[in-house]
Amino acid sequence: GAAAMKVVRDWLRREAPRPVGRAWLERHALPSLPPGKVTEVPFLNSDGMNSEMSQLHIGKERFVLKRTPFDGKRHVDAAIQRWFEREVCFYRELAEFSPMRTPKSLAAVFHPPLLQLPSFLRDTLFGLRFRSAFGGGGFTLLLEDLNTADGQWNVASPDGVSLPQAMTVMRSLGSMHGRFRDSPEIASAEARWLPIMPSTIQFLPFMEPFVAKALTSVRSEFSVELAQVPGALRLAEGASQHYGALTRQLAAAPRTLVHGDFRPANMRFSQSDNEVIVYDWQFVSAGSGAFDIASFLALGMPAELRRSHESELIDVYLKHHHDATGTKQLSNASLMQDMRAAVLLELAVFIMGAASEGAGGNPLFRKIHAHGIQQLSVAASDWE
Length: 384
Description:
By secondary structure, this protein is an alpha+beta fold. It has two domains: 2-144, Phosphorylase Kinase, domain 1; 153-383, Aminoglycoside 3'-phosphotransferase, Chain: A, domain 2 (Alpha-Beta Complex). Helices cover 52% and strands 12% of the residues. The protein has helices at residues 2-13, 22-28, 72-81, 83-94, 125-134, 163-180, 184-192, 204-221, 223-227, 232-241, 243-251, 290-299, 303-325, 332-357, 363-383; strands spanning 38-42, 52-58, 61-67, 105-111, 138-144, 153-154, 256-258, 267-270, 276-278, 285-287. The strands form three sheets. It has a five-stranded antiparallel beta sheet, sandwiched between helices. Strands 6-8-9 form a three-stranded antiparallel beta sheet, covered by helices on one side. Strands 7-10 form a two-stranded antiparallel sheet. Strand 8 and strand 9 form a beta hairpin. It is globular, with a radius of gyration of 20 Å.
């Protein structure tokens, strides 16, 4: 049955056993593990969109185990874009250099597929189709459990972040983008595993017709939601029509480290709101930091709060960006130009996500995409 299929799947992808045991952890986890019995407890109804999640008990300590989903469709999507490899490599190579705080990683293991292409074919259209057919490997991450930190780390309100939280995020984001702007670490990662832009710029010949097809579906399936925001359909059409140009604009050098899914859903805040931890790095890439800024400002806070404090928030970002680079390489005008492109590009991303759900899709994911399309349309209209 399903259990046998999981065993075969794990063997083919050389993944961690289910449940994971101390022997595997001692081979892969750094630093050394705490003493005690190892017990894996799956999260009920808490799987990530692209990952399976469980809590790992090691003696008296608790950790989060994140691994390849068993769901076939989710794995194919992740394989095409190499989401698993990207997150593992981020924790292995870049997290330690980032001024932005991330969960502590005890193990970050990528399990390459048995069938692999040479690197020069990896991100070609042939490579995309190859991974779609044969899979792209799996992963295992062992991270600190923010839920057991004595209430130290809190989620944002469902309505979005507060102004103090937004200020904390923009300080951290500016420092991270400045630290990695045109850095040797980014150049090295680009040469080996880090794609340019979250959706991988080499896939543009495939993505441009896909987003146009997705818009046709969304125009029909989400007509009520689109009608609730003046100009939303016009903006969606523009995002679809100019998807390639928008991507190329944000992919231009100099590039920095881009989180790629920079929403409050992937953040935790300290009790005083003066610290933030950011997780879920599967969409990490190189590109313009404006992509993260636009995503956060448009999707992360109520529109009225954003409008009232947007200039202040951008000033905070630029100050910490300049402090990290040591020079004022980024102007307010050029940043706003890229933010206008970024919010439309993110709108196109949400259109593709909404189309993949359709009328019979997961109700929660459908709601997330519909609300996101509305929020992004409002911000895009404000920034025109």
